[in-house]
Amino acid sequence: MKLSFTTLGCPQWDLETIIASAVRYGFDGVDFRGLQDQMNVYEARPFAEDCAETISRFEEAELAVTCFSSSITLVSKEREEQNFEELERYAELCRRFGTPYIRAFGGKLGGAGRQEALDTAAGQLSRMEPVLRQAGVKLIIETHDDWTSCEDMLLLLEGTSPDAVGVLWDVHHPYRMLGERLEKTWQALGSRIAYTHWKDSLPDLSEPGKFRYRFMGEGDIPFRDIYSVLQESGYDGWYTFEWEKRWHRDLEEPELAFPQYVQFMRALPSADRESGGV
Fold first, then answer.
1. Residues in domain Xylose isomerase-like TIM barrel (predicted)?
2. Structural domain that includes position 207
């Protein structure tokens, strides 16, 4: 099992702390979603000016940069040029670091109809595919926002090449937001799922429709069943912890959440064998 974390969970850590902590806690890679005060990491000094040194530091630590998580929002007409610039900048970083994925959002519909949003996304994806192919990188669209259900994600993927565009299955969102059965998600999207995000939560009984994040295993997301489905289907991708500390400052510190994630996930295979799988 290959474990990674997004830097969304450690917004105060500098690069040195990120690398040292990843090694100390037993991770295999890091997914960059911001670096301290800079969300676009290609503008941060370790990637803009000291890129060669940063690559060497990851190689010495035997860590992979698993994904560059962008702010690309495919249904936004207003963001099209910004989206394309982000894509080009992250594709270059992927080429240099040997990183296979750039994360993107479908985005919120706002006042647009779904078909209008799909047309906007299709136009942007068509423009992006040559860049992705040239860089040997896959754009992975997260099950998020108004594209959380497998039916809606399939519409977004229509007409795209599996070589250039895939799915990031945030295993939390379809289950928590929609009650979508994991078997349904995998049956619909499994052939396009290239990457996964993991986090746990419980419904917030004081606010219907809301939820609160919890340490792994302290919520009710069916991780053992999800893991079994992935293993039975031959998934060999990353299991990436998305602890949303940057957006929710009341969450526990990464020094507590990150090692707890590794401990929980490393125990999943043995727990799955003992239970006989799904």
1. 20-267
2. 2-275
